[in-house]
Amino acid sequence: MPQYYAIYKPFGMLSQFSREGDQPTLADLPFAFPKDVYPVGRLDADSEGLLLLTNDNIFKTRLLDPAKRHERTYWVQVEGEITQEACAQLAAGVTISINGKKHNTLPAKAQVLNTPNVPVRNPPIRFRKNVPDSWLSLTLHEGKNRQVRRMTAAVGFPTLRLIRWSIGTFSVEGFEPGEVRVLAPEHLRQALQKF
């Protein structure tokens, strides 16, 4: 029977159940996932936020299909006061390097965010009195390795904190780091209509 879960993956946790060294994994969450459930895609250990898990391989394949270009929105804390000009560059697409090859990112949605109400990160971002920081919302239709970090660096604003806030209209609004929610298929289909 298909089963679906959403978690807020905490900072520092690997997006997998198997152990690698002493880094925390999804197996460390206080939840008994069925053995046939796996993450849909991944988030790097130094990223946090929405991660979907399922045993529905058809859903997983559709969600990860690059031709479908499903929207993923990230809330990004960057070093410096992000400008409208930088947001316009991100929206138009920038050139980044992936495995030593130049890649032109697809057009995206980028906008300055007022400091959002997000869970406290553990450990917190290093505070520097003389270096301001700011937030932006960045919605992508592709998912290259460390793409968001490469994009913000390309426009002069290195990423300090990265939260995948939503996939489609399904978000981690109200989640706490490490929280797991069981999803009804209808709820997920409604939030991810394009899938």
Describe this structure in words.
Belongs to the pseudouridine synthase RsuA family. GO terms for molecular function: catalytic activity, acting on RNA; pseudouridine synthase activity; RNA binding. Keywords: Isomerase. This is Pseudouridine synthase. It holds the Pfam family PseudoU_synth_2. The two termini are about 20 Å apart. The protein is of the alpha+beta class and about 200 residues long. It is globular and about 50 Å long. A hairpin with an 8-residue loop joins strand 2 and strand 3 (about 50-55). The strands form two sheets. Strands 1, 2, 3, 4, 7, 8, 9, 10 and 11 form a nine-stranded mixed β-sheet that branches. It has a two-stranded antiparallel ribbon with strand order 5-6. It has helices at about 55-65, 85-90, 145-155, 185-190; strands at about 5-10, 40, 50-55, 70-80, 95-100, 100-105, 110-115, 135-140, 160-165, 170, 180-185. It has two domains: about 5-65 and about 170-190, Pseudouridine synthase I, catalytic domain, N-terminal subdomain (Alpha-Beta Plaits, 2-Layer Sandwich), CATH 3.30.70; about 70-165, Alpha-Beta Plaits (2-Layer Sandwich).
Defining traits:
single chain; 195 residues; alpha+beta; Alpha-Beta Plaits; 9-stranded mixed β-sheet; two-stranded antiparallel ribbon; 11 strands; 30% strand
Question: Gist?
Answer:
The protein is built from 4 helices and 11 strands, in the order E-E-E-H-E-H-E-E-E-E-H-E-E-E-H.
Give the SSE layout:
Blueprint: E1 4-9, E2 38-39, E3 48-54, H1 57-64, E4 72-79, H2 84-92, E5 95-98, E6 101-104, E7 109-113, E8 133-140, H3 147-154, E9 159-167, E10 170-171, E11 180-183, H4 185-191
Parallel strand pairs: 3-9
Antiparallel strand pairs: 1-3, 1-11, 2-3, 4-8, 4-9, 5-6, 7-8, 9-10
Family: Belongs to the pseudouridine synthase RsuA family.
Protein name: Pseudouridine synthase
Domain Pseudouridine synthase RsuA/RluA-like: 3-154
